[in-house]
Each structure stands twice: as C-alpha cells, then as structure tokens.
Amino acid sequence: VSDTAWQRLHPLSPVVRGGRLTIGIAILLAPDLLLGRDPSHDDVQIGIAGGLVLLGFVSWLVTRWRVEGDDLRIETGLLRRRSLRFPLSQVQAIDIVRPGLARMLRLAELRLRMGGSSGATARLAYLHEHEVDALRGRLLALAGGVTSREEAPTVDPVDERVLTVVPTGRLVASILISDVGLAAEAVLTGLVVVAVVSPAAAVGVLTGGGAAILSVATLVWRRFNQEFRLTVAESADGLRLHSGLVALTAETIRPGRVQGVRMVEPVLWRPLGWCRLEVDLAGSQRSKGEGQSQRGKLRAVLPVGSRADAERLLDRIVPDRPKRQSRPPRRAAWKSPLRYRWLAWGRTDTCVATRSGRLRRVSCWVPLEKAQSIRSVQGPVQRRLRLASVHVDTAGRSLHAAIRDRDVTEAGRALVELSDLARVARKRAAPR
Amino acid sequence: VAVQEVRDESDWRRPSRRLLTLRRFEVAGSAVLAVSVVIVVFSFAGEVPIGFAGAGGVIAGGLVAEWIVQRRFSAWGYAEREDDLLVRRGVLVCRLSVVPYGRMQFIDVRAGPLERVLGLATVHMHTAAAASDARIPGLERDEAARLRDRLAELGEAQAAGL
Asked: Hey, is the C-beta of A395 within 8 angstroms of any chain B C-beta?
C-alpha cells in the first residue's frame, strides 16, 4: 500500500517562506540584542516579531500532506480550510527549488507542475533535503503508472547522462548582449556619464530612479542566477535540468510531456552563431506560486549555445524533425515584409516545424500528437493576395506552430493533412 | 481549393435563423438609442437640422451594420465529422477550426437573456489550448443540448492525454 500517513512540512519552512521578512525581523531585533536592551521600544518590536512567528507557526501547524493512491493530497488553511488533490498522472514536471535561505537551512521545495485546464502547481514548501530526492523518484514512478501496490522502482538519482552544460563565460556574454543586458548597460553608462558631468545630479538620479534601476538589476540577476551552469541530462525518469548559483533549481520533465520546442536566434547573437532553446509544457498561462518572473515564460533548456548543441538536444526532445522546410510564395512579402525572409514550414508524419520572426529568427517544433486543434485563418489582406495561415494549437503556455502566409491551396491541404496526421499520431501515442 | 473541398464535402449545419433576428434586434436597439441621443442633444443646442442630419447618418450606419450582420450570420457553420468538429466563422477574417472530439475538455452551453427569449443558446468547446476558442452561437435549445451530449459522449470515447 503506497498510502502514507499525513505528514507535516519541515518546521523551519515558515522562516524560509517569510524570506525577506525573516531577514527584516532579524535586522529589526539585532540592535537590541547586540547593544543591550532599550526598554522604551522593546515591547512593540518583540510584539510584532512574536506575532509573525506565531502566524508562521500556525500556518505550519495546519498544513499537512500525504500520498493517497494515485493522488497527492495537501490540506492547508486555518480559517478557510482547503483540501487539494493533485492526480499524479497529470504531472508534467517536478521541480526541486532551493532558494539561498533554504540552502542554509538544508531545506528544499518540491513543485509539481500539473497539466489540465486548471494548470495548478502543487507546492510542498519546504521539506528536508534528504527526503526530497526520494520523494521525487517515488512520485515520478507513481505518475508513470506504477500501480500503488507494486514496489516503486527506485531510480538512482546519480544515473544520468549529461547532454549539455552552459559555460559561465558564454552565459555572461550572452546576457550582456541580450535585451535585458543592453538596457542595464545603457542605464549604467548613463549613470557614469551623469556622475562625471555633475556628481550632484547623479545623486538625484539615483534617488529618483532608484526603483527602476533596481528592477533592471534584478532582471539581469534573476536571469543569470536561473541559467547559471544550466545542465541538461537524460535519465530514466525524464529530462533533468539543473541550474542556479544562489537559488538552485532541479527540474525533471517527464518523457513525452513536451508540448513544443522553440529556438530563438536574436539579431545580436547571430554573428556568434548562438541560439536559445526553450521547451513548453502543458499548464495555464497564469499558474500561481511560480512568481511573477516566470509567468507565461518558457523554460530554457539551452539559455545560450551553438547550433550543434541545440541540434543535439533537439534530437532528444523531437527526434523526428523535418529535414527541409518550404518557403512561402513571393507575394507573401507584401503581407509580412519583415517576417518574409524567415518564413518557412515543414512536416514529417509526427512533427510540424515552422520558422518565423521579424528581427530575431524563431523556429518552432510541435509534435503532432500534442495538437489540440488546428485552425486556418485568412485576413482581408491575405484574401487579396490569395494567402492563408494555419495554426496548430497546443496546451502549452505560449507556444504554438503558426504556418504563416501560404498559398490558399497549400494551406487548405495542410489543414486537412495535419488534422489527419494528428489523429494518427494521437492514436499511436495513447494506446490506453 | 482544398479548404473549399473540406467545406463542400462536409455536411454543414447552420445556426438558427433566429440568431439573425437577435443580431438585427441588437443593431436596431443601439441605432434607436443613438438616434434619440443625437436628436435630444442637438435640440437642446438649438441646432435641430443638424440633429436630424446626424440621425440620418446613424440610420445609414445602422443599415451598413445590418448588412454586416447578415454576412456574418451566413458565415457561421459547423460540421460533425467522424473524429472532429469543424467550425467556420468570420467575414473579414475567415476562420476554420478543426477540433478533435478527443481533445475537448469540457463543453458549456450559455444563454443570455435575449437569447433565452428567442430560445437560443451558445455552445462553447474548450480544449487544453487557450487559442482554440471554438464556439457556435445561436443554436436552438434542443440542438444545443443534442450537440453538447454528443460532443461529451464522443469526447469521452476518444479522450487522449495531454
């Protein structure tokens, strides 16, 4: 029987959840503790801190979880009690996240990303480091259809084959010439120039635009931290992604859960032959608890790499890719002048590939078994030019294959062919 | 043209003609409102002739809207095929969606107050993809219920994982 007893999270989890608040309290109390007591404002501070600690303790006390059959159940809330049930068969990916504070306390968070229209994320924040790996293995095994009575096979967490590692130097260089990086550099040079011309004005700029400067810096830092030494490895239970400098993330993507892959080649990276590879998983656009920064964003499996690196990863994720892609008719240039030079599409029996993008070049691959619906769209300009577009929608967050500006005949044929192929692919993929 | 082939060989069904009545009613309603506002405003300003000219303009606009509404009504269509549902719509931007039954996650039937008066309902098909927004407005209530039940049944039989 795989049902486990109700368990609580680690007692220190409110401390990590509070994060900045905890540090704030520590700073607030530090002078009193270090420099001796000053009874005048002692009570208030102790009172506030005590209240927060109590709140944290209560939130810990009322939260419990267990594995029940094929579900993960979490119960939480004191006044508004919530009982959440996450069917493990719908798990798309399991992440282990360890922010800096959690690492100091040897804690880790387990995140289960669910598919389905709710697209919720189950969070177990935080557990002890020792438990997490074993629990992930067990949950993945249960998700993979191991019936609850069988002994779940233990996947050796070390048994993985590294596919790519991102060199730090290249990551730094790529961020320096990315959109966020360029913005940060512009701000920095602006500040330096102002400081040289008149130091008094620089202080004004710093205090006035402090928030904006800070947010740009945060963006750059977050990107660097998230993609630092990102390692992609292959293991028995799926694709493993490890990354992070301060906050560590380890992600396991179950096999066959990738809804689509996207390769982006920004203008500035093209002379260097670099590209970025991102995968899309099922889930809603606005899943809670993932933080503002990740909303609607795709997960980069290769933040920056050469074409060869990208091809190697693509071979793992979408092995059956079209070799050649066909270009749209010349008159499409009237409708999409900027996109025209990149536009192309191709297909095999199981995969559709498209290429587009105005300045940067964006290539997409979508496995046909993941197609949710196929649409043909023809706007007024397209009708005048006898063109039409075909879209292959997936359950991903933001990725879908758009076959733009094809001849009407070809678009119609593509619509029919792709819906037939998708049907065949779907039947082959789901024999159950 | 292949799209045309799909269009011709499939057995297309249309929304009820009462949908056209509904849309005309909406156009007429907003036109009457706009005309009265224009006339009242200009009467108070003491420019009655301009007010009537404005009202004439509004009525002309209403007639154009009536034409558009007619075209849009006749663009709607849906066909139930063996494995998927086809929905076509749109005049300015023509859309044709192929939604496999197995991909439909849930189906809801909605009816606003005006639709209810005319005995109509709108059927919404939801898939896991946000972009595949397939809906068929202006179905008679019985047809909407039939379609809903049939889609639910077929969806269950052919359901595929994400």
From this structure: yes
The answer to whether the Cβ–Cβ distance between B93 and A115 falls below 8 Å is: no
Q: Which residues of A touch B97 (CB under 8 A)?
A: 373-375
Contact status of A416 with chain B (Cβ, < 8 Å): yes
Please name the residue of chain A whose CA is at the shortest distance from the CA of residue B100.
A373
3-state secondary structure of B79: strand
Cβ–Cβ below 8 Å for A117 and B126 = yes
The answer to whether the CB of B22 falls within 8 A of the CB of B120 is yes
CB of A238 within 8 A of CB of A253?
A: yes
Cβ pair B84:A413 closer than 8 A:
no
| This prediction's pTM | 0.83
Q: Is there a contact between A131 and A112 (Cβ–Cβ < 8 Å)?
A: no
| Nearest alpha-carbon partner for A29 in A54, A48, A56 | A48
Tens of pLDDT, residues B134-153: 889 999 999 999 999 999 88
Helix/strand/coil (H, E, C) string of chain A? CCCCCCEECCCCHHHHHHCHHHHHHHHHHHHHHHCCCCHHHHHHHHHHHHHHHHHHHHHHHCCEEEEECCEEEEEECCCCCEEEEEEHHHEEEEEEEECHHHHHCCEEEEEEEECCCCCCEEEEEEEEHHHHHHHHHHHHHHHCCCCCCCCCCCCCCCCEEEEEECCHHHHHHHHHCCHHHHHHHHHHHHHHHHHHHCHHHHHHHHHHCHHHHHHHHHHHHHHHHHHCCCEEEEECCEEEEEECCCCEEEEEECCCCEEEEEEEECHHHHHHCEEEEEEEEECCCCCCCCCHHHCCCCEEEEEEEEHHHHHHHHHHHCCCCCCCCECCCCCHHHHCCCCCCCCEEEECCCEEEEEECCCCEEEEEEEHHHCCEEEEEECHHHHHCCEEEEEEECCECCCCEEEEEEEHHHHHHHHHHHHHHHHHHHHHHCCC
Interface touch A415/B103, C-beta < 8 Å: no
Give yes or no for A287 touching B (CB within 8 A): no
A-chain residues near B3 (CB < 8 A): 376, 388, 408, 411-412, 415
Amino acid at A349: D
Assembly ipTM = 0.87
Chain A partners within 8 Å of B84 (Cβ): 419, 423
Q: How confident is the model at residue A146 (pLDDT cuts 50, 70, 90)?
A: low
CB of A91 within 8 Å of a chain B CB? The answer is no
Read off the pLDDT of residues A75-85 as tens digits, 9 standing for 90 and up: 988 888 888 88
Task: Give B106→chain A minimum CA distance, Å.
Answer: 10
Do residues A352 and A365 make contact, with C-beta atoms less than 8 angstroms apart? Answer: yes
Q: Tell me, yes or no, if A415 comes closer than 8 A to chain B by beta carbon.
A: yes
Residues in chain A: 432
Residue of A nearest to B98 (CA): A374
